[in-house]
Amino acid sequence: MEDFSITTRLTGKEYSKVMFIGLYKKPRIIVLTILGVVLLLGGLKIIPFYSDDPYLEIIIGLYFLLISPIAVLRTLKQLRSDPMFLDEITYTFGEGGFKIIRSNSVV
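Given the sequence above, the corresponding C-alpha cells read:
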C-alpha cells in the first residue's frame, strides 16, 4: 500500500461546534441547562413559583444557561491566541502507522 496524506485546517466555527457537542453530551451540563430554563421561567413568572420578585432565580437561571457558551468563547479565545492551532495539519498514513506534520514540525 502506498502512503497517502490528508491536509486539513481547523476553523474557529468547526472548533466551537465540536465543543458544544462535547459539552452537551455531559449529564452535568444537561441538568444545569434544564435547571437554568426552569429557574428562568419561574423568575419571569411564566411558571409561577413565587409571589414576590425572584431576581436571584433569574440571575442563577441565566448563569446556568450561559455556562456552556462562556466556556466555548473562552476556549476560542485561547485557540486564536496561539496561531499554531490554526495552521494546516498534514496526516500521512502508511504501512508502519501514521505521521502528523504541523507547520514544518513533526508531532
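The two ends are 23 Å apart (CA to CA). Try to locate this feature in the C-alpha cell string yourself.
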